[in-house]
Amino acid sequence: MGDAFSLGSRFARGDVDAPTPKRSVFPGAKRDSPSQAPSPVLPRWYPKAMRNDGRQPDQLRPFTIERNFAKFAEGSCLMKIGDTHMLVTATVEDRVPPFMKNKGSGWVTAEYSMLPRSGRQRNQRDLMKPNGRSMEIQRLIGRAMRTVFDLEAMGERTITLDCDAIRADGGTRCAAITAAYVASYDAVQWMLKERMLKRNVLMEPIAAVSVGVVKGNEVLDLDYSEDSTAHTDMNIVMTGSGKFVEIQGTAEQEPFGIETLGKMLKLGQKGINELIAAQKEALGLG
After folding, report:
1. Distance, CA of 177 to CA of 157 (rounded, Å)
2. Per DSSP, which regions of the chain are E strands?
3. How many Cβ atoms sit within 10 Å of the Cβ of residue 145?
4. Are 205 and 276 in contact (CB under 8 A)?
5. Which phi and psi (to 5°) does residue 180 adopt?
6. Which residues contact 132 (CB under 8 A, 6 or more apart)?
């Protein structure tokens, strides 16, 4: 491992060109058990029953970011956030889809899937084509990632982001986008090394997080138990410059007002700022 950064958590930096995985551990995570949630000391007034794992309303699950997990991919990232484990690989191809040919521009696309026993019950494999949910999620990942790429500077090349949920406990699409940026960064660095690009085509970081209303309270980063009972469920995608890329929100029970929306957006911004800071530390950009 490279040099470590310590500020209440540990961050492992890695050389961009290094083929060996670089694992970074972030807030609340125990090194030998990254998916174990922290047990903060709560004030007397805090409703202990509010969150099942003892987190504060504005607290992310403990997470790790591991670069270069897949040996042969141009870029890859294994992100573990709580009990959600998402592997993203980035593949570079010197061609574009038919609808992009002769336009002098590149393309970034994504595929999303959950392993059959990534969840509490076995999922059927998407052998022929993705199911409706997987299709919706991979389109979200692809269009989100394209917002931070200078596609014209890529030339007619494609980066395919394969996002596979190894373990799913809520927030897989958000973990996929956050990990996809790390995998894309290393893929772009590989392209620069191979002289396929003249400059970095990634314009800024991007990350995503879930927020919601659970038991009448606005909370950050829902796990499955919270997501399945939430009154409101929302996914937020933002860039490093603080701009919104996508907001997906649904009132599962009672409609929510502008005040609740504002609180959820602030929670999401806080969580995404922490995730982007972690991405930068993992990539040695802090």
Report:
1. 20
2. 4-6, 10-12, 22-25, 63-67, 75-81, 84-93, 107-114, 158-167, 206-214, 217-220, 232-239, 244-251
3. 25
4. yes
5. -65, -35
6. none
Q: How many residues does the chain have?
A: 286
How confident is the model over 210-258, as pLDDT tens digits?
Answer: 999 999 999 999 999 999 999 999 999 999 999 999 999 999 888 999 9
Nearest alpha carbon to residue 271 among 228, 212, 191: 212
The CA-atom distances, in angstroms, between 135 and each of 65, 109, 112, 165 are 25, 12, 7, 14
pLDDT tens digit sequence for 255-286: 999 999 999 999 999 999 999 999 999 999 97
Structural tokens at position 48: 């202990």
Q: Which two tokens stand for residue 245?
A: 């890329």
- Are 232 and 264 contacting, i.e. CB atoms less than 8 angstroms apart? yes
Pairing of strands 158-167, 107-114: parallel
Q: In whole angstroms, what is the distance from residue 253 CA to residue 16 CA?
A: 46
- Closest by alpha carbon to 112, among 68, 81, 145? 145
pTM: 0.84
> And the tokens for 96?
């574009």
What are 124-136's pLDDT values in tens digits?
A: 777 667 788 889 9
Question: Is the dihedral angle over the CA atoms 278, 207, 60, 66 positive or is it negative?
Answer: negative
CB 67 within 8 A of CB 76: yes
- State the average pLDDT for the chain: 86
Q: Which two tokens stand for residue 101?
A: 């040919």
Structure tokens at 109: 């696309």
